[in-house]
Every structure is written in C-alpha cells, then in structure tokens.
Amino acid sequence: MKRNENKVPTPYDMLRCLDRISAAVGLNDQTPDSFVQTLPFMDGDATAGAENEFQAVVAGKRENIDLARVIETSNYYRNLVEQARTGETPQRRVMALERLLKDKDGQDWENSWVWFPRRVLNRFANEVFNKDLKADKSIPASEYRRDAACFVFEKNGENQVRVPVSYLLKLALADAVGGDNGVPEPVKTWGEKMLAHFSNDNSSPELFSFYPVKSDGTASLGEKLAAETLLRFLLTQALVAYAGHKFELNENGQKVKVFFSATPPGDQKRLNDVVSDAFYRELFMSPCLSGWDRGEEKKEYMSVCHKVLSRSQINAVAQLKEAGIINSNLVVLPNTSNISLANNGTHISLGSTKLSRCMSDPGSGFTALEEKYTGDLTIKIWEHFLPLFATTYSAAPHRFEFQEFHPERVLGFMPHELIHTHLRMIWRRWKKKAHLKVMGKSMTPFGPIWLDHMIANIFRLKGDFVPDGRLIDYFTSVMSTFQSPALNGSLESEADLKKDLTEMGVFDGRMALYQLVRLRKYHQMGYSGFEHRYFSVFEDVVRDMGKAADLQVLITALAQKYLYSRQVDHTMIPDSPTVESERRQIFFCTAIGIPTFFVKTRTRNRFLAKILKNTAKTRHSHRYPGYTRVLVAEYQRALISLIQTDGADLVSALNCSSVLDDLENRVNMPQTHAASGRITQGILEGSGKHKPMSMPGRVFNRHAEEYYGKTLREAHISQGFELLGKAFEQIDLWARYRDTSYGQALGQILGSRDILNFLKSMRQDFMDETCAPETLKKFIYLMVLVVSREMKAWQDR
User: Fold this and answer.
1) By the 8 A CB rule, do 304 and 434 touch?
2) According to the model, what pLDDT value does residue 332 have?
3) What distances in angstroms separate CA 765 from CA 327, 571, 741, 778, one per listed residue?
4) What are the angstrom distances between the C-alpha of 602 and each of 274, 382, 418, 479, 612?
5) At 588, is the secondary structure helix, strand, or coil?
6) DSSP, residue by residue, 668-709
7) HEC states along 118-162?
8) Helix 420-433 vs helix 295-322: angle between axes, to the nearest 10 degrees?
9) Is the dihedral of CA 137, 141, 145, 149 positive or negative?
10) At the N or C end, where does the chain have fewer CB atoms within 10 A?
11) Could you say which DSSP state residue 479 is in?
12) Who contacts 738 (Cβ-Cβ below 8 Å, separation ≥6)?
C-alpha cells in the first residue's frame, strides 16, 4: 500500500500555519518583551507533574517470602530438578538457583510480592480489591480476571492475599482512609481519589503526581514539583509502615522497603540468568491490578514488551556484527530474558495551559497536526540539550567487571539507537577509557568465565565505571528508519516507524515508541506538552529534581522562541537516522563518561553546527577524516552559553540566572556538584575506598544498592519531613481562617493537640520505624489533608 505522502506541510504552508498558531496562543509580537512573555511554557503557563518508579524489597527468611515460595513450589523448579537428575539439564543450573535462594535467606528479596490474611482488610479495602480483580472494572457485573486465583491462596486454614508491593500501597491507603469510624470526610473523599494515582505496569512500584504544579510567584515550578514528589515519597513510606502493622506483614516475617534506585538489582540479574523468560515474567511482571479498566489486557501488553525487548537484545548481536564490532562468530549470547524493565527512573512531564486550551477549542486553528508538527520540532531542538542533564542532575553509578565487557552485553540497546558509525566510535573510545589493553593491543573477554577471570587477574584488567548505568541498559529511544522518520511533523510518522521496526524484528506495533522526550498529545493525555524520560536517581530531590525541572522549562521556552520567531525549522535539523544518531551519541557518551565525540565537519544539522561554532577546543580528527573531535564538557559549556545568549530575555523573565549558575558548577566541578559525583561519594563513604575502580565491580554495585536502600532513603525521608512541616503550617492557617471543614478534620484527627507538635513528636519514631499504628494512621490522614488542599485548588481552576 502506498503511504499518504501529503502529511507534512511545506515550509510555505507552515509559515502561514505559524501565523495562525501564533494568533491562537495569543502571542504578542509588538515588542520583544511582550513576545517572550506570551510564549507557551512561560511563567504562569507551564505546568508539571512526575511519575516516580521505586525499588521495592521484602526482607525476611526464605520460608516467609513469597518469591522464594513461588519458585520452590513451581513446576518450573520441579521440572528443572528432575531434568538435572536425569542428565537432561546441567546440574549447575539447579545449583545456581539453589545457591541464590540460600544466599538470599534472611536478606532483601527484590521485587518479591507479599502475602497477608484477607481478614485484615476492612470493608472498603476489600471492595477495592474485589473491583480490581474484575476483568472489566467499567462493568460492575463483570466476571473476575482469568488469573484472579493468583492473588489468593490458603495457609493454615485461612484465606490469604498475595500482591506485589506496588498494589500493597494502594490497598494500604484504601484501608487507612476507608475505615467505617473516625475518618474525617475530607480525608475519606480525597483519599479515595488518590487511589487512582497508583497505576503500576512494571515490576517496581510507580506513583504519579496527585496534582500538576504551576508556578505562582511564591516558588519556582521546579521547587513545587520537588515538594510534591517528596510528599508522595513520604506518604509511600507511611503506607509501607501502616501495612507492616495493619496487614501483619511484620508479624509474618516480611519487612518491606521502598526507595529510589535506578539499575536492576544484582541478585535479580543472577536469577534472570538461570530461569526462562516465561518464568521470569511470572515472577516479576506486574499484574496491572490498578490503573486500567481491563488490567489483564494491560498485563498481556507488558508481556509483549518484555518479549520484544528480549528479542531486540538478541537481534542487537547481528547489528554489532554488521557494524564490525563483533568480528567473529564467538559471542556470548544475551539471555533470552531481558531485565531492562526492572530499571527505575523518574519521568517529568511539562504542559502548557495555552496549547491545551487551543487544542480544546475546535475553532482555534490549532489542530492535532499543528500540535505534532510544532511538538516534533521542539523535541528535535531539545535533544541537543540532553547532555546537560545526564549525570548532572540524576545518575546511577555502576561498575562493570572485565569479564562483562562483551560488546553484546555492555552496549545494551545502543545498536538500535545509533548508526553503525557512531556505535563503532563509542565502542573504541569506551575500550580506551576502560584501559582494555594488553601490550598495546585492545583486549575484550573471550567468553569462558574461568579464562576471563584469569586474564583479568594476570593483566590487572578491572573493567570500567560509568556515571549512569541505567541510560545504557534501557531502550531509551528507538532510531528512525530512512523511510519513516519519527519526528518529521507528520501525524502518521509514529505508526509508519513502528511498522518498519516491527518488520525488522526490533519492535512491536502495539508498543508506544520509546523516546527520550515524548510528545504528550492533548487528545490522548488531556493536555499538550512533553514527557522527559531520562532521569535516574536524584541525590537531593529539591536541589537536583527541582533545578532540573526549572532548566527544562527554560529550554522548552527557548525552543518555543526559536520556533515562533522562525529561527529554527524542520529543515535545519533533517529527519534521517544519521542526523538523529549524530546528536544522540553525545547523550550516551555523557552517560558512559566518554570525554569526546565526533561530528561530521560538514554536518547537515545546522542547529548542531550553530552550537559547535561556539564550542571551544574542537579540532579536526586524525583518526576519522572529515570529522571534528569535540569534548563533551566543552559542548556542555557551549550549550550554557547558547542559553545565556539566545535566551537572555527568557532567563530574566523566568528568573533563572541561579539555575544556570548552578548548572555551570555541575559541569565544571562534577565531583562535588553533579549528581553523579555526589552519589558516587555517598556509595564509597564507609568503604575505605576513594575511587570506584579501587574495588571489584560486584562490591561497588552491592554498596550502591545498600546506599540507595538505607542512606539515601533516610535522607529523602528527612527532606520530606522538612517540607511537610512547612505544609502543616499552611494547613493549620488554612484550617483556622479559610476553610472550617479543614479545622473540623484536624480536630477529629488530633483533638486539641497542635499539628506541628504532633509532627515533631513522631518524627524520630517514624525514622526509627517504631511508630505506633494509631500514630501512623493519623499521620496518613494529615498527609491526605495536605495533598487534598492542592488537589482541590487545581480542580477548581
């Protein structure tokens, strides 16, 4: 079938289109100042929300942990044991699985489900659970899901519930706010509305903003978003503690922890290496109980995602051979089960009330085509600025051992994200960075583990350290094909690209396109804006996430200025895999810690050429004729200079000069100011080592997991309490002078006790995990009240 080619407006059409769009959004070009003030995403127009993915662990003895129980009672395990007994399967596979179960005994079991007696759920929580077990929740009389029996079992003659930690959080909130007695009406009403924000489709718990934030002059948008995120994180901790008591988890030997951690846990990788892909999905894929009317269909979709990513991982081996990176048939085949869906990150979404209003008005002249055309151009501009964010505001430091340094392993999904030329360049420089040389010759592992260990010990080959391992172990952004560009402004571009990629065996047309920055379409999401999907772990949520969001607003506004002032159009950034790869390679180099990259001296990307024109210390490459060698740090400095020059009026209008000062410190002094440097130092603290490469990779990565689960978790809880104290002051004033219903609710919860004194008295017990159950319930009620005030204010706008 011939594709409809009349989808992308011509430059002449778009000039007229931009005139129409400018009028629709209310741009005032009478003066430079009025033009800037009326751009989309400026102060008062931009909104923001976040989706946070957390790591969940359940600590306990093997006999009490659901994950161990499921493995040991599974037909998969029994068949494996029998096959090993008869010689059909190597005995070492059974031994590896049993050794892992033994090693985990009494330790943390990552992403295990939990179980508890069903009798502990109150009436409302039971109603929520029953509804979520329906095949179609929009139909009250719907039958139960076909897999409903997976969530209940009998133990000691008593009915038990078994659910992932992600769903446990929702049940805990439902149980806390759904009690029949003593629950203030505002807490009950708004607490029930908050349940919809626990929508989990991956292994780990996910929670998205209870309300969008908008700058109002009292604080920046980034500060508000960071505060909202920390309060959600603190509520999550309260729900975990509440469930531990009320659902008898602690009594039954299950200690749940939830925290920020980006890369898949080492032991989960170990388990993935010794089980089949189908059994891995049974153990770890979310059942999607919450967030979708037909949860079982969503669960099947996530299984498709896992199968496709696993297939793509194997497909990447052929790509590496075509690229000349693998030069023989001797490779270490990736596991048929891929673990990248266990990566956890934070997605920050920005919206524009102006653009959303135009999209809601059929007579505005701003249609889905204009939204896509301008949105795609904004994304293409944005991708040039991504190296300012990787490792500076968030990070996931990770160590690779020498024996892991097979290109088919460490390069992850990059064969599907970069062209062969850039892939070869990155691989050569990465090997150089990792000092993988013996007597002047490059050396990578051979395959047999015993041999690679021996070579590493003899020649002191330690592998490498990367500042953000998550970004190279996740399918961050699919590459366009030559026939189907993803970002050319056409309404059909995404569908066309997915069709091409499906035919190539790289993707599946049912999946959403993976992109570093993704357009949020009004008719799909209810707002018009962009989702940013490249954040890993924030060391300090206020300092890192808040500043990052403020910089996002500034750069998005700058992109709008380029677009509406006709300084940048689609022809400046051509739509081809080569041009896409050329700009995205810089982002991956930043994540890996490779200090240089190469760009064609006569690049077709005129916007990139504009940046490079003012980038210091560039030189013609000796190794790659026709290419220019660029330092990543100098490129970052050039980007900052570009913002200060082209966006000086925006910096002033958004009051962002301090954000750029902070960014310069992160770029110029990464060890002390960038997130990667601070997180790395936090991991090393107490180890007696001062550099990641001074300890074995497995030891460093284990220290990292411990740091996220204890030190950083406690720091984030403390940050949450500091912000909650300020919020309690406001709610107290609100209750006294603005809304009597809040005053009545506070009285019901605390009696005559002062709200700030209550917070002060229970804080240490909360940190020590010794809070009484009734105190926890009151704490949850108060947090729901705080959140409800903001939810109500947004709803009333």
Assistant:
1) no
2) 74
3) 60, 60, 29, 14
4) 49, 21, 19, 22, 11
5) helix
6) H-HHHHSHHHHHHHHHHTTTT-SSGGGS-HHHHHHHHHHIII
7) HHHCCHHHHHHHHHHCECCCCCCCCCECCCHHHHEEEECCEEEEE
8) 80
9) positive
10) N
11) P
12) none
Distance CA 540, CA 677 (A): 12
Contact 425, 434 (CB under 8 A): no
Nearest to 428 by CA among 668, 603, 612, 629: 629
Q: How many residues does the chain have?
A: 797
Q: Which two tokens stand for residue 519?
A: 């357009």
Structure tokens at 270: 């170990």
DSSP 86-119: TTSS-HHHHHHHHHHHHHHTTSEEET--EEEEGG
The pair of three-digit structure tokens given for residue 662, joined into one six-digit string: 């902070």
Tokens 């005030």 belong to residue: 789
- What angle (nearest 5°) sits at the alpha carbon of residue 716, between those of residues 232 and 395? 100
Query: For residues 787 and 196, is the Cβ–Cβ distance under 8 A?
Result: no
Q: Which residues contact 369 (CB under 8 A, 6 or more apart)?
A: 9, 489, 491
SS3 206: strand
- Residue type for position 12: Y
pLDDT tens by residue, 704-752: 999 999 999 999 999 999 999 999 988 877 666 567 788 888 999 999 8
Q: Which tokens hold the place of 406?
A: 């097979």
User: Do residues 517 and 605 lie in contact, with contact meaning Cβ atoms separated by under 8 Å?
Assistant: no
Query: Please, what is the end-to-end C-alpha distance for the chain in angstroms?
Result: 47
How many CB atoms neighbour CB 140 within 10 A?
A: 8
> Alpha carbon of 674 to those of 226, 681, 699, 716: distances in Å?
17, 11, 23, 18
Evaluate if residue 305 carries a pLDDT over 60: yes
Structure tokens at 85: 């007994």
Q: CA nearest 555: which of 760, 378, 353?
A: 378
More confident residue, 255 or 407: 255
Residue 600: helix, strand or coil by DSSP?
strand
The Cα–Cα gap between 237 and 472 comes to 30
pTM over 0.90: yes
Task: Considering only CA atoms, give the Rg of the chain.
Answer: 27
**How far is it, in rounded angstroms, from Cα 258 to Cα 498?**
35
| Sequential DSSP letters for 376-400 | HHHHHHHHTTGGGTBTTTBBB-EEE
| 608-645 CB burial, b ≥16 within 10 A, e <16 | bbbbbeebeebeebeebeebbbbbbbbbbbbbbbbbee
Residue pair 299/288 in contact (Cβ under 8 Å)? The answer is yes
For residue 114, the cross-strand partners are 163
Enter the DSSP assignment of 342: G
The structure tokens listed for 191 are 């607490």
Residue 328 pLDDT: 75
User: What number of other Cβ atoms are within 10 A of residue 103's Cβ?
Assistant: 11
The one-character DSSP state at 195 is G
Q: Is 630 helix (H, G, I), strand (E, B) or coil?
A: strand
Beta strands in 494-580 (DSSP E): 517-520, 529-535
pLDDT per residue as tens digits for the range 588-608: 999 999 999 999 999 999 999
Q: Please state which of the ranges 23-32, 404-413, 606-615, 739-748 shows the lowest mean pLDDT.
A: 739-748
Distance CA 197, CA 790 (A): 15
**Rounded distance between C-alpha atoms, residue 539 and residue 393, angstroms:** 8
